[in-house]
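Minutes, methods subgroup
Present: GH (chair), OT, SY

1. OT presented the first of two proteins processed in the latest run. Sequence and structure tokens recorded below as shown on screen.
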Amino acid sequence: MPDRIELIMELKSVELTRALYRAVEPDNRTAPVGVTVCTRQEGTRLISTIESTGRLQTLLATFHDLIAALTTVLNVLESL
């Protein structure tokens, strides 16, 4: 059974949510071996699920990378 982390973010607007989704959407296609990343948008909610059949460290590192990417995009967008 794979380990799993789910991140749910409630954002201010659909447009902001869409921008974040587009920024991390490539992660849905490229992830470390044994790891799957699925991010989807539901209105103003951004939902990311990371699953790993390998080491827990890889799962946590992927989660950390996702958080870093989302934080960077939010900081850029908020500065505009």
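2. SY then presented the second protein from the same run.
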Amino acid sequence: MHRGTGRCSAYLLLLNLALALAVRGDAQPGVPGSTPPAMPEPVNPLVDLLPSLRSAPAPPWVKEKLRVTYYSAVATIPRERYYTYRTPSGALVEADEVGPAGHSYMHCDVVALDAKAAVTAIGLYAIDPTTGQIRPSTQLAHVGVPGAGSAWADPATLAGAEGIAREGLKVVTMPYPLGGKTWRSIRFDYTSQNGHTAMVYDLDTGLLIHYNHAVESADHRHVQLATMQYKGQRLLTIPWAGQAAPEWVAPGANYRLQGTFSSVMPGAPTVPLAAAQTIEVLDTGPKWTTLKVVYWINNAAAETRRVVTGVAQLLRAYWLPMQGLGTLQAGQVIDKETLTGATVSVHMVEDDFVVLCEEGPEYRVLMAYSKQNGGLLGIQETFKIGTAVNQLELQIGD
């Protein structure tokens, strides 16, 4: 397999894997003392296939505060409807094999852009299969070169790609109908021993408009089907965009948020569990940072994610430029997202801190930031899951 195109499947595999976990709070507690599973960073596979993208500029339409949105769906299907297993006692049991599936909207927000890096915060919003309600699911990160971001590639480089020859690879220019228009596009198709991957870019702008894959599992028992379609783009309104990152944000800086998680069920007792997040700054640029976040439930490491924060970030930031926080007013509406129904507003303003709120029909997320240093002070999340209400409350701790 060619190294660059082989990573195509890994790119969206990671993004879509979370779709099967259609409810917030999907990560299960791990074994105490165990190392939590890591979430690798998505990469744009075209950088390996077209090395000149490493020095190419971002397309003119790519700017800080840009949001590109996709619809995405994934399903893991068995090759056989039933499998036979042998129990510890030696008995043979025929089991019904059903794989996970889900769909979501995916926001790719450009939170920082300079001559060397394009930094994108990627947010998945799961669509409930029964009610159609939408709620935040998973946060991912992408730090790439300006010429090849999470949702684009330099159109001048793409224009010269049709003649590339690789085993199993086809690159063709073609009309592509999507969203009521026909795009002048270039399509990368790759077939390997473990599956097939396709990516379609708009030749005029470099926008990624379509992706799909069918990838076989290592044990040859399952195939993952995934697709992603472009839905739209816009520039967000962010009061603190374009300002400087706090001075304390440097590699090695770390802190801890701690509190409780509980699931409230009608007629059932509520037992709060200890919850925490440990945050460590891994790398920094002039206007962005990458961070390692470890999620803890009941004193067990449940999950590790690599996330980003940038000066043009609207949601899920671990710091914000404090200069912009001082201009906010309580009740101020910052953003409304038509597709997901979410509203971002200023919930509270005090002398020392400000609280931002993201709210949708089935959830509310409050995040408190210090006016003195821009750091995240606390998180309060409320998610309705069927008849249950999941609640997470964290605040800065030792």
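Chair's summary of item 2: The chain is about 5% helix and 50% strand.
Next meeting: continue with the remaining queue.
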